[in-house]
Amino acid sequence: MSKELVEALDALEKEKGIKKQVVVEALEAALVSAYKRNYGQSRNVEVDFDQQAGEINVYAVKEVVDQVFDSQLEISLEDALKINKAYEVGDQIRFKVTPKNFGRIAAQTAKQVIMQRVREAERSIVYDQYIQYEKEIVTGEVERIDHRYVYVNLGRVEAVLSHQDQIPGEEYHPHDRIKVYIYKVENSAKGPQVFVSRSHPDLLKRLFEQEIPEVFDGTVEIVSIAREAGDRAKVAVRSTKDGVDPVGTCVGPRGERVQAIVNELRGENMDIVEWNSDPADFISNALNPAEVLNVIFDPDNERACTVVVPDDQLSLAIGKRGQNARLAAKLTGYKIDIKSESEFADLATNSEQEPTEQ
């Protein structure tokens, strides 16, 4: 067993990159527990693994004292001096107490420790591989589905796609190939856990980078994204170079670029709007396709405003179930109150007619 163990440790270091000394230290600690468990000893023991000869020995460690109270943990100075006249009170003496059949226990323990270290090393390798892809898009294959998750095979690990990370209404079937966004990688006790999403706003950002070279190289920058997955999204873009139309660049010839993204997201509607340093202009752009007549900012709240639109554009500006206004507010970071032109005029008239207190 001794020679085989040394060879196994050498192979482990060579093939798996697991340092021999790390395994030896873990093995020695495990053998101490195994000795106490199998021989019912509460004494202070150490296990020494001779890496050259491959021999494993157990030693009882006793402290030199003037008066012995516990013979398993202590040895008198008088007895210690009989062993070596150089011993003093406080010294530690090791006595070899290796049981005859300890080799069998050592072999079993060594096997368990090595297997555990191999599992840990493999987990670490997988974790190191996938932590590099955190915040990135990968393509995986749907493996199975249960009431909690869609399990997506990414190669060396099975990622989980929760209900909240799925696109509402999207159906998944085994062997489907889907693009997912890795938003979190955890190194848990059970091994690396990879969490992926189809509804995350950054999935949209990464898709734009994949489909639009100018976004990837920074010529066009995505400033903000507001998304209701599976239904509609608004993306604010700006150009970092003069003469480049950021919206047109993202839409592409005949809408081909943005259509590729829409297809990947199973028909999710996409509004690409131009970011503007002037908040009023940015808010007007964000409410596209509605026409905006005026943006009045609240003097008491710098992040709130009232937007005035033509009477026939009110429902368009608000959108179905308030979606257009909601996404515009999320995109710009402003609380937006939308009023029709006539409604705003009535409010202004009533305000002017209110008597002032003397």
From TrEMBL:
GO terms for molecular function: DNA-binding transcription factor activity; RNA binding; translation elongation factor activity. Monomer. Binds directly to the core enzyme of the DNA-dependent RNA polymerase and to nascent RNA. It comes from the Bacteria. The keyword RNA-binding applies. Residues 133-199 form the S1 motif domain. NCBIfam families: NusA. Keywords: Cytoplasm, Elongation factor, Protein biosynthesis, RNA-binding, Transcription, Transcription antitermination, Transcription regulation, Transcription termination. CDD domains: KH-II_NusA_rpt1 (cd02134), KH-II_NusA_rpt2 (cd22529), S1_NusA (cd04455). One of its GO terms (biological process) is DNA-templated transcription termination. Pfam families: KH_NusA_1st, KH_NusA_2nd, NusA_N, S1. HAMAP family: NusA_B. Participates in both transcription termination and antitermination. This is Transcription termination/antitermination protein NusA. Residues 229-326 form the K Homology domain. It is found in: Cytoplasm. Belongs to the NusA family. InterPro entries: KH_dom (IPR004087), KH_dom-like_a/b (IPR015946), KH_NusA_2nd (IPR058582), KH_sf_prok-type (IPR009019), NA-bd_OB-fold (IPR012340), NusA_N_sf (IPR036555), S1_domain (IPR003029), TF_NusA (IPR010213). The keyword Zinc does not apply. Its main location: cytoplasm.
